[in-house]
């Protein structure tokens, strides 16, 4: 990844997060704000630890209080964020959803506290959040390129399984939540996307959605095997189109669409390949939606039979693109809180600029981003 874009230095020079003023609170309260609650769908990308950015976005939207979620489609970390927010909301409303999200990410951080894969002194000295100088990370990265998870992890232990079983009450989620949930995974056998709806959501479905094939054995569900959903839908938009009533979809983007400079190191090249491939299906779906919108606008399709969807995007590409690939495995609490604050900032800025256009118009520059 380009090295000229780095987040603020980590360590002692970081401001204490607990004392930071909420970006939502920084919106000018002197300006009148509509109190009308609007319904939207959310599409949440995956990205390992970078999913804490999405946590921040969700936290900001929930705190603002002017949006309700009709449906959420998520992949990998996005799928876990979706399940956590839906369950928390079912049990305790907005406050319950925010508390559930924080509890989940804190548990993720605690799970990784004793991991040998940590930033070194030199990583910290460089001012970034990556583990590029960690011998353990370099060894792990090398091993995953020459050995499969069936060799490296023959017992097929998964560090997230017990955590998800403790954090998510699937029966509550399936029977109580009013938010529709759609989790994407890639069928290894036929190469197709499999979307698990709320009624069929299990811990295996979430693990399948986050199953990187170089790190974990394929997850078996109903006799079929699945890998990370990012290969075929990161995230999938079509479940929101066919199954939800809201005409607005907010995409929470983690993986950068563009890079200012070409990658140069082996890790940077592989990471950029993954970013491009993981964004490819989203690119195609957005282009298809834009094509239908144009046909409706040109009166070549009956607007009564086809939906004219409004697309929006919350992202912070300038700050997220400066994070190295190894930082996706960094679950230090300070880093997760940094990503959360970046997400809250992005949500606050988007709400201030575009809330009034929800239900009215698309705010995503489709031509600039996808065409």
Descriptive notes:
This protein has helices at residues 51-64, 77-112, 121-125, 135-146, 149-152, 159-167, 170-175, 203-209, 238-243, 266-297, 317-320, 333-354, 366-370, and strands spanning 38-44, 67-74, 180-187, 193-197, 219-221, 224-228, 248-252, 310-314. The chain is an alpha/beta fold. Helix 10 links the parallel strand 7 (248-252) and strand 8 (310-314). Strands 1, 2, 3, 4, 5, 6, 7 and 8 form an 8-stranded mixed beta sheet that branches. Helix content is 44%, strand content 12%. The longest helix has 36 residues, at 77-112. The two termini are 23 Å apart.
In summary, what is this structure?
The protein has helices spanning 51-64, 77-112, 121-125, 135-146, 149-152, 159-167, 170-175, 203-209, 238-243, 266-297, 317-320, 333-354, 366-370, and strands at 38-44, 67-74, 180-187, 193-197, 219-221, 224-228, 248-252, 310-314.
From N to C, what is the helix and strand string? Answer: EHEHHHHHHEEHEEHEHEHHH
Overall form: globular
Number of strands: 8
Task: Supply Rg.
Answer: 20 Å
Decide which structural class fits the backbone.
Answer: alpha/beta
The biggest beta sheet is recorded as:
8 strands, mixed
Helix content estimate: 40-55%
* Amount of beta strand: 5-15%
Mean pLDDT: 88
- The DSSP helix count reads 13
Taking the alpha carbons of the first and last residues, their distance comes to 23 Å
Sequence stretches where pLDDT stays below 50 over 5 or more residues: 1-7, 9-32
């Amino acid at each position: 990844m380009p090295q000229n874009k780095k987040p603020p230095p980590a360590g002692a020079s970081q401001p204490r997060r607990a004392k930071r003023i909420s970006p939502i609170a920084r919106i000018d309260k002197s300006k009148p704000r509509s109190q009308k609650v609007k319904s939207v769908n959310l599409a949440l990308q995956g990205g390992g630890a970078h999913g804490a950015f999405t946590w921040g976005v969700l936290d900001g939207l929930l705190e603002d209080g002017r949006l309700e979620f009709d449906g959420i489609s998520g992949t990998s970390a996005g799928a876990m964020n979706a399940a956590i927010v839906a369950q928390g909301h079912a049990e305790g409303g907005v406050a319950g959803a925010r508390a559930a999200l924080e509890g989940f990410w804190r548990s993720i951080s605690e799970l990784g506290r004793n991991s040998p894969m940590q930033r070194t002194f030199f990583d910290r000295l460089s001012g970034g959040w990556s583990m590029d100088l960690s011998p353990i990370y370099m060894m792990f990265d090398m091993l995953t390129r020459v050995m499969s998870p069936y060799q490296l992890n023959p017992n097929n232990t998964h560090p997230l399984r017990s955590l998800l079983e403790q954090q998510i009450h699937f029966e509550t989620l399936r029977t109580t939540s009013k938010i529709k949930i759609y989790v994407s995974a890639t069928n290894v056998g036929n190469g197709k996307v499999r979307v698990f709806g709320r009624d069929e959501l299990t811990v295996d479905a979430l693990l399948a959605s986050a199953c990187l094939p170089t790190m974990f054995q394929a997850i078996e569900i109903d006799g079929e095997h699945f890998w990370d959903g990012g290969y075929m839908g990161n995230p999938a938009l079509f479940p929101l189109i066919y199954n939800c009533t809201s005409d607005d979809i907010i995409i929470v983007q983690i993986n950068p669409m563009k890079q200012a400079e070409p990658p140069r190191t082996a890790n940077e090249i592989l990471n950029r390949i993954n970013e491009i491939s993981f964004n490819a299906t989203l690119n195609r779906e957005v282009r298809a939606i834009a094509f239908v919108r144009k046909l409706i606008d040109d009166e070549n399709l009956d607007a009564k039979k086809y939906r004219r969807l409004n697309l929006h995007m919350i992202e912070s590409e300038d700050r997220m693109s400066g994070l190295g690939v190894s930082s996706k495995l960094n679950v230090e609490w300070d880093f997760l809180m940094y990503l959360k604050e970046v997400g809250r900032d992005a949500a606050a800025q988007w709400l201030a600029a575009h809330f009034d256009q929800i239900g009215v118009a698309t705010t995503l520059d489709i031509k600039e981003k996808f065409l």
